[in-house]
Structures are given as C-alpha cells and as structure tokens.
Design goal:
Chain A: InterPro entries: Gliding_Motility_GTPase (IPR052705), P-loop_NTPase (IPR027417), Small_GTPase_ARF/SAR (IPR006689). The complex is a heterodimer of chains A (221) and B (410). Chain A is of the alpha/beta class. Chain A is built from seven helices and eight strands, in the order E-E-H-E-E-E-H-E-H-E-H-E-H-H-H. In chain A, helix 5 crosses helix 7. In chain B, a hairpin with a 3-residue loop joins strand 10 and strand 11. The chains are: A alpha/beta (221), B alpha+beta (410). The interface between A and B is medium-sized, with 32 and 25 residues. The complex binds guanosine-5'-triphosphate, adenosine-5'-triphosphate and magnesium ion (2 copies). Guanosine-5'-triphosphate (GTP) binds next to helix 1 of chain A.
C-alpha cells in the first residue's frame, strides 16, 4: 500500500517483480536501471549469490516531482524465485502496489510458471493483498530463445485472464520499458482514487508514465 | 505478518542508521588523514554525526545521498573535487551498510514470521492437549465419542501441517507430539473395549441374583487382567499427556521473539528450553551435555538471546560429520555471565576464520545456510554489551564463548 508522507510531501510506491526462478526478474531491473532516465534514479542494489540467484531481493529506487511539488518515489523490488525462499518472497511482496509477473517463455517452464503464479496468489492472500484489485501485468520473457511457446499459444492460454500480457527479451532490453509502463498505467488508475493525481497534483496518467520512466533519449550526449 | 515489527527491512534509513556498526573513531581518523584537514558530517537536520562539530559554518559542503534524496552533508575547507571524492567514498560505505542492514532486517523479519506461525500452531496443540487431559480423567464416560473427537482433531492438526515454512525444528517437534498422541489413542480404543466387557457384566447384574454365575462371568470377561491393564494404560496415557504439556511449555517460553521488552531472565532456563526445542533436530546427530552453574538473573531480551543459542547450537549440529558431542557450560565470574558452547565437529579451517562473521558467508548448501547466523548472533550479543568469540581447530572442534556483563555493583 502506497505510503504518503504529508510532512515531506512524498508518496512512496512499491512495485514487485515476481516469478519462477531464473525467469529474468533481476535482468528486468538491471535493464530498467540502464535505460530509464527519470529525474531521480538511485543505485541498483543486487543481492545475489555467486551463481546469480537472488538471495533476498534486488532494489531499484526511482522518483520524480509532480507539478504540485509532490515527490513520487518508486521502489522496484525483485523476489527470489527459488522455491525454498518462500518466507522472503512473502515479506518482499507485502504492501506491494503493483506486480509484474515475469514468466519464462521456454516450453519446459510452463509448470514452473503455473506454480509460481499460484504461489503469488497464495502469498498475496497471506499478506492481506486483494488479488482481484492488485495492478498486475504478465510478461513472457526470453523471446530470443528457440523452443519457446509462440505468442499465439501464450495469448490463447491467458485469454480468459484479466491481466495484460507482454513479451520481452530482457537480456537485450526489449519489452522491459513497455512492461513497466503497462504496470504504471494500472498503478495510476488504482492509486488515483485515493490520491487524486489529476485534481490535486496536476498530473495526468500520460505524464505520470512519461516522468516515471523518463522519456528516453538514446542519442549519445 | 505484523507489519510494524522493529525489523522492517523497508523502513527509511537515516544517516545515523547507516553509520551504525561502523567504527566511528576509525572512520573519522581515516577521513581526517585523507582530507588533511578538519571536516564535519551532519544529517539533514543539522545534527553532527562525525568530525568536528565546531567547523566554520562557511566551509564548502556537499550533500550525501541516501536511496534518492540527500540525507546529510559533509563539509571541509578543501577543493570541491576532493570533497566530492570523500563524499563518494562515504556513499560507497553507506551503500554497503544499507545492503547489510536491509538483508539482516529482512532475515529477522522472516524469522519472526516463521515463529509466529509456530506459536499459532502451538496454541492449537495446547488446546487439544487440554482436551486429552480431561479425557483421561473422565474416561469411563463416552469413551467411544471421545475417540472420534480425537481422531478429528488429530486429522485437522496434521492437515494443517504445512511445516516447511516453520523451519527445521517444527518437523521434529510434531513427531515428538505425535508419538504420545498415538499411544493415547490406542489406549483409548483398548479402554473402549473394556467398557463393553463391563457393560456385559452390568447387564448380568440386573438379572441374576446368584453370586457364583456372576463370578464366572467376571472370570470369563477376564476382569482381573482388565483391572490391571486399565490401571497401566491410564497411567501411560497420563504420562503421554504430561509429555505433550512439557513440550508445549518449552516452546511457549522460547518462541517469544516478538516481545520487544527486556526482562530479567535466567539464562540457564533459556538454554534448557532451547535444547528441548531442538531435541528432535539433535537426535542421532549430537549429544548435548549441560554443565550449568547457578546464575543471577540477567536483564536481557530473552527472545533474541534464545535465537542466538539456537543458532549456535544448529551450527554445532551442522558441523558434525558423525554423531558428536556438544557441551554447553554457563558460569558467572567477575561480574559477567559466560556461556561456552563447545562441539567436537569438523571445526573451521584457518582460511575461513576471518570470514565467518561476514554476513552471507556460508559453507553450507544453497537453501540450507544463509550465512547470517553468526553475524546476527554477534549483533544481538553486542546489543547486550557483550562479546562473542570463536576458537576452532579443524577436525577437533569449535568453541563459541559468549560473555555478557552484569550491571555493576552486583
Ligand atoms: N536468452 C535470454 N536469457 C535471459 C533473458 N532474461 C534473463 N536471461 C538469463 O536468465 C538467467 C536468469 O536471469 P535472472 O534475471 O538472474 O533471473 P531471476 O528471475 O532474477 O532469478 P532468481 O533470482 O533465481 O529468481 C540469466 O543467465 C539471464 O542472463 C532473456 O530475455 N533472454
Ligand atoms: N560450530 C561450527 N563448526 C564448524 N563451522 C562452523 C561452526 N559455526 C559456524 N561455522 C562456519 O561458519 C559459517 C558461517 O556461520 P553462520 O552461522 O554465520 O552461517 P550458516 O550457519 O552457514 O547459515 P545460517 O546460520 O544463516 O543458517 C558456516 O557456514 C560454517 O562454515
Ligand atoms: Mg534474481
Ligand atoms: Mg548458522
């Protein structure tokens, strides 16, 4: 749940990258750190073991100022995907304002994706998150590999689900910002009711997304 | 989960938080030597944390950044580029400390959540234990019904047995409790059979007036044996119920990790509770010998010290290649309480010795050790103004000594 600090005029929004082990959550965060250019960008904090498995979480802090002067701060976390770290996953998920579910597109990973999604649903309930109202987007990652489910297959399987499905190749950065933006769109709508971004902070949805992801200028300086 | 526990890994860290655990004097003298002049570090409220508080107000200064925003500043009368180098250096230091603080807070937070789960389960166990006690006392009535109730309770208890999240102790404790429940149940079914025999004699009692046929029936139903056996199984069942009660009592004492309060506690009792709680985990792996001398009460945080003892005990168990011995000794000398935990496990290679207190250093398999046990233990002991030291000899064993000061003039 977003934390609003009246005194310092600061709103803190927590977004969590969830998904099975090795699906590319940490890679998403690293690419966002490379690509995004918001007003404020902190260092990325990676907590992994020698073989690249996230042990506790990764954290990327971002932020920008709304026209009203309100500082909007995002904390992007990844959870550890390995099954044994469930308590940690639960603690990191708690109080999330939005979730990107990073699935692995490889054919052999469907069961892991399914189990991890069920685990997300369980843990959300345990930490008191109303799953039906939680801003959520699903990202099918590793599109660059062979032996993956086709886009048609993926979309067919997720057809009945209410969440947007996006495709990405986080390793090279494709689709990573699009996923983030798709989540921001939902987060804006879900928080707008409480914080009245447009009315009180002169902040439209388009501006919210553009400023959070800092419209990218890829040309060399 | 309780979201406002003291270990919320997401809380905003102030400059003072981030400097916690860093040797202030060493940092000050290193900075002083590097900058070659007086300097001051203050937080964003202007409170001085490092260096010279009386530095001239017009000295050049640079902001020190936390996650995103300035959390303080450094000032010194030196060129901007050198000031920036110093600020960068401090920032690197703060980042490393933030990483550790967040990880260890999260570690404690998940541990607390796991213990809350354990506590919840024990409330359920305690309730059924009380039911068993009442049952043993009013055995003659409604035996059959009660057997049914137990069956249901037991079923429910073990249906909810998602022990994985409760950590390595819970599985063993469940087994420990399951065992007496097993024989109490079987005793109750036997008793139900005996009641049927008694009922048959009771029927005869209503209809026949002749003592000898009554006596014959008594023998036929094997009543002398039943009388003796009934005595035995009741005795055994009461013993079982008492065993369950003892286990529950130990756990309740130990799993108070959430009590933020300090209190006067008997560390010997705490050590015994920890050993009892860990009994199942120790079985077949290590024998624990307690050598406890009378201790004065210590004003401490018993829940956290219990975690320290448990963590050290688990390290000792994990060090056993073959079944071994663990000796825990407590003593009070020179106004300090000293607790030694000695094992004859595989020991720590000299090359690892300088790393074992490093957070995340572990030689255990992925998923088994976090490498936080010792660093968290040392922090807890330090919070009690105490010391934690380790001596080890490879292939001989390891000695962990904790020394905790008593209030002066005791
Ligand atoms: N080919 C390909 N590999 C990827 C892609 N994204 C991530 N990977 C690789 O997949 C492996 C795991 O990526 P991580 O980002 O560490 O995965 P994670 O989800 O954080 O894993 P855990 O921390 O264990 O939960 C790494 O070797 C990445 O380089 C992708 O789009 N394509
Ligand atoms: N009694 C001991 N005997 C031998 N080695 C030990 C002992 N205690 C600690 N060690 C060594 O020190 C390392 C660090 O211990 P520590 O308790 O900090 O972490 P851990 O036991 O690996 O993981 P955790 O306690 O977080 O589950 C261990 O991995 C082990 O190699
Ligand atoms: Mg990761
Ligand atoms: Mg340990």
């Amino acid at each position: 749940m977003a934390i609003f600090d009246e005194e310092s005029k600061r709103l803190s929004i927590k977004l969590v990258y969830y998904g099975p082990a090795q699906s590319g959550k940490t890679t998403n965060l690293m690419r966002l750190h490379d690509i995004l250019r918001p007003d404020l960008k902190g260092d990325i904090m990676l907590m992994e073991t020698a073989n690249d498995r996230t042990l506790f979480f990764d954290l990327l802090p971002l932020g920008f100022k709304a026209p009203s002067g309100l500082l909007i701060k995002f904390k992007l976390y990844t959870v550890p995907g390995q099954v044994v770290h469930d308590s940690t996953r639960k603690a990191v998920l708690s109080r999330a304002d939005g979730v990107v579910f990073v699935a692995d597109s490889q054919r052999g990973q469907s069961t892991n994706n399914g189990e991890s999604f069920a685990n997300l649903e369980d843990n959300a309930a345990r930490v008191g998150i109303d799953f039906d109202r939680l801003p959520l987007v699903v990202q099918f990652n590793k599109r660059d590999l062979s032996g993956i489910l086709s886009e048609e297959e993926v979309l067919r399987r997720w057809q009945a689900a209410p969440w947007p499905v996006l495709f990405s190749s986080a390793l090279v950065g494709d689709g990573v910002v699009e996923t983030f933006n798709a989540l921001l769109k939902q987060v804006y709508d879900s928080l707008d009711r409480e914080f009245e971004f447009q009315a009180r902070h002169d902040l439209s949805r388009a501006a919210f997304i553009a400023q959070a992801s800092g419209q990218i200028d890829r040309s060399p300086p | 989960m309780n979201s406002d526990t003291e270990h919320d890994f997401e809380r905003d860290l102030s400059l003072a938080d981030l400097l916690r655990g860093i040797d202030k004097q060493r940092l000050e003298s290193a900075l002083q030597a590097l900058l070659g002049t007086a300097f001051a570090v203050s937080d964003h409220n202007g409170e001085y944390l490092l260096g010279a508080a009386d530095l001239a107000g017009d000295a050049p200064s640079l902001a020190l950044y936390g996650e995103l925003e300035p959390i303080g500043q450094i000032s010194a009368a030196i060129p901007q580029n050198r000031l920036k180098a110093a600020a960068d250096l401090i920032r690197l230091l703060l980042r490393a400390n933030a990483r550790y603080l967040m990880a260890s807070d999260l570690h404690l937070q998940t541990q607390q959540a796991d213990f809350e789960e354990l506590q919840r389960r024990h409330k359920a166990l305690e309730q059924s234990e009380q039911r068993y006690k009442a049952l043993a006392e009013t055995l003659e009535i409604r035996v059959r019904q009660q057997v049914k109730t137990i069956e249901n309770t037991q079923l429910k208890l073990y249906e909810t047995e998602k022990l994985a999240s409760v950590g390595r102790l819970a599985a063993g404790i469940a087994h420990e409790i399951n065992n007496p429940i097993g024989f109490i149940r079987s005793n109750l079914s036997t008793a139900a059979g005996y009641l049927t025999a008694l009922n048959r004699i009771d029927e005869l009692l209503q209809t026949c007036a002749d003592l000898s046929s009554l006596k014959a029936a008594w023998q036929r139903e094997d009543m002398p044996f039943i009388q003796q056996d009934m005595q035995d199984i009741l005795q055994e069942s009461i013993g079982g119920a008492e065993r369950i009660a003892a286990i529950v009592k130990d756990l309740k004492g130990f799993s108070r990790v959430n009590d933020a309060d300090w209190e006067d506690a008997d560390l010997n009792q705490l050590i015994r509770q920890v050993c009892n709680v860990a009994a199942a985990e120790l079985r077949d792996k290590a024998e624990v010998y307690l050598d406890l001398s009378q201790l004065p009460l210590l004003h401490c945080h018993p829940g956290e010290l219990g975690q320290v003892f448990l963590s050290l005990l688990m390290n000792a168990v994990d060090a056993m290649a073959a079944p071994g011995k663990i000796r825990i000794r407590s003593a009070c000398r020179e106004n300090r309480i000293v607790i030694d935990i000695r094992d004859n496990g595989r020991g720590i290679p000299a090359s690892d010795m300088s790393h074992i207190f490093d957070p995340f250093f572990t030689t255990k398999d992925v998923g088994k050790g976090m490498g936080l046990g010792l660093s968290v233990a040392r922090n807890i002991v330090k919070a009690h103004q105490g010391d934690l030291e380790i001596k080890s000899q490879p292939n001989v064993g390891t000695l962990v000594s904790i020394s905790l000061p008593l209030p002066a003039g005791r």
